[in-house]
Amino acid sequence: MPVTPARLVLHEVGLRDGLQMEHASVPTERKLQWIKELAETGLDILQIGSFVHPAKVPQMADTDELFRVLTAPGVLPEGVILSGLVLNEKGLERGMAAGVPMFCMGVSASETHSRKNTGMSVAEATDRIIAIAKLALSAGRGVQVSVQSAFGCGYEGHVPEERVLSIVRRYLDAGITSISLADTAGHAAPDAVESLFAAVRNLDPGAELTCHFHNTYGMGLANCIAAQRAGVTSFESSVAGLGGCPFTKVAGGNVCTEDFVHMLQRMGLRTDVRLGKIIAVAQDVAAFFGRELPGMVYKTGTLTSAV
Amino acid sequence: MPVTPARLVLHEVGLRDGLQMEHASVPTERKLQWIKELAETGLDILQIGSFVHPAKVPQMADTDELFRVLTAPGVLPEGVILSGLVLNEKGLERGMAAGVPMFCMGVSASETHSRKNTGMSVAEATDRIIAIAKLALSAGRGVQVSVQSAFGCGYEGHVPEERVLSIVRRYLDAGITSISLADTAGHAAPDAVESLFAAVRNLDPGAELTCHFHNTYGMGLANCIAAQRAGVTSFESSVAGLGGCPFTKVAGGNVCTEDFVHMLQRMGLRTDVRLGKIIAVAQDVAAFFGRELPGMVYKTGTLTSAV
């Protein structure tokens, strides 16, 4: 009997990772509109903000409000999960109060990146994230933990697999089994992706694995396919490929949601997703920012009969 | 003992497939400069023109001259192979006279595409191409035959695998074993790529397989990886990702050579290729056309120490 392939989970992170670099402030009303539209497309999880200090990332200042509005009964279709990023205890408190159903949090595999971002060593940051994750889990919230710079680091370059695996082991030992490996700097190539995710699956074949790639060097979709081959079932991506630096010509955004869904649908996967509606949001996002965004399918049109 | 992976062959087609859609005429001197620069990068084969009627594709009118100049002894480094596209007997005659070392030629797997391009059915076009290929082979020239629209057709949509395989069988029966499958309309997705090339390998495990993808929907590099998994050892690509339609915003060019080489080198493959020199040509090509071309790495820079 052939194995039924696992249903692939689509985690849209455009409203968080996509917007946090954008300096043009997006009004809360506009965010609400995009989120409501995306919630009707069949995407599974929408990451809509980050509980970071508003002075640090003004674009994320309305995160609490977004959760309060959108988690009210009947606002979004049944089954759509909202996720939010937290960096520390204070963020978790805010997120708990705002009713966040799923928390995302992580540490960097790079000592330099970790110290620059958190002032802590990787080991210390891991202790802290595990403590926060346990608090969220004991409150009945969903939790996904991540390892950032898992495939390389802008400061340190190569990141050895064992460094990533030692963090993953600590997550698993703490009973946290939803794990994302993030290619924060866009360094991943397909062979490294397949190798590292296979090694993680070896640690716990039952872990729920997520990948998070940036398309800085054009390898984003190739890396997603490599991840899928290694047993990854959940994919983070960003509408219109948002997430690059808006002040350069560099199209280094997240893997583009509609480009990824288009590829999946060409392969007969996730044909339930309403690609045409995602594309409409991508076009609206590009119009809002008044520039061409990295996504390709929203410009070229699709080969599938997008609805 | 681990199997030594086959050396991957890089076939640059920017000067032919990349330029033929461009209306801005590229002076012969400029082409010669680009070709000479590319010939010093370690790319294996350079496709520099097409023996089509000059009135039909004025950009290719200097193809005979390019071959005559460049095949003179000592003009290009040893070992670099020049290839040229021929469509018919007249083209072959011109190519023979111009000293073409390697001929590329093909038929479409789509009846509609075949009739529109050649006025012939697929079966008739296959007869003709096999006859031309045999002439070239018997003259001691290299020959690569292709199946165009192998993964889908702009007119007919889906192209069944069996239609492609029946053409490949005819090539193999005629003793022609260097075979390229071309995704002329950018329809290929990784699962179809892997499946079709595996089926071709099944017909003749010794055949030398080449892939030719366009990056219309962002799947180009993912398709190259899928092809490599299925045993493809030769890859056609275009410097700067040339090959899209210059009058639209659509970045639907060929797979970009320097993006592909960059990915390979991240995977430890073809580290002999001088990526930095390819990037320099890409930048010069983009400057010549005065617009941003689809390639990413020539804009972002590289993660490898490109030389």
Polypeptide structure, described:
- The structure is a homodimer of 307-residue chains.
- The first copy, chain A, has 307 residues and is α/β, with parallel strands linked by helices.
- Chain A has a single domain (9-300), classed as TIM Barrel, CATH 3.20.20.
- Helix content of chain A is 41%, strand content 14%.
- The first copy, chain A, contains twelve helices and eight strands.
- Chain A has helices at 14-18, 28-39, 63-70, 89-98, 111-118, 122-138, 161-173, 190-203, 220-229, 257-266, 275-289, 297-300; strands at 9-12, 45-50, 81-85, 102-108, 142-148, 178-182, 208-212, 234-237.
- In chain A, strands 1-2-3-4-5-6-7-8 form an eight-stranded parallel β-barrel, surrounded by six helices.
- In chain A, strand 2, helix 3 (63-70) and strand 3 form a beta-alpha-beta unit.
- In chain A, helix 3 (63-70) runs parallel beside helix 4 (89-98), helix 7 (161-173) packs parallel to helix 8 (190-203) and helix 8 packs parallel to helix 9.
- Chain A is globular and about 45 Å long.
- The model of chain A has no long low-confidence stretch (mean pLDDT 94).
- The A-B interface holds A 152, 187, 189-192, 215-222, 224-226, 249-252, 256, 259, 262-263, 266-268, 292, 296-297, 299-300, 302-303 and B 152, 187, 189-192, 215-222, 224-226, 249-252, 256, 259, 262-263, 266-268, 292, 295-297, 299-300, 302-303.
Overall geometric form of chain A: globular
Number of domains of chain A: 1
By CATH, the architecture of chain A is named Alpha-Beta Barrel
CATH topology of chain A, by name, is: TIM Barrel
Oligomer classification: homodimer
Helicity range of the residues of chain A?
40-55%
Can you count the helices of chain A? 12
How is the largest sheet of chain A built, in terms of strand order?
1-2-3-4-5-6-7-8
Secondary structure class of chain A reads alpha/beta
Ranges of chain A with pLDDT <50 over ≥5 residues? none
Provide mean pLDDT of chain A, rounded.
94
How many angstroms separate the termini of chain A? 33 Å
Give me the count of strands of chain A. 8
Radius of gyration over C-alpha positions of chain A, nearest whole angstrom: 18 Å
CATH superfamily of chain A: Aldolase class I
What can be said about the biggest beta sheet of chain A?
8 strands, parallel, barrel
User: Which class of chain A in CATH terms?
Assistant: Alpha Beta
Protein chains sharing the most extensive interface: A-B, 35 and 36 residues
Secondary-structure element order of chain A, as H and E? EHHEHEHEHHEHEHEHEHHH
Sheet-strand content of chain A, in percent, reads 5-15%
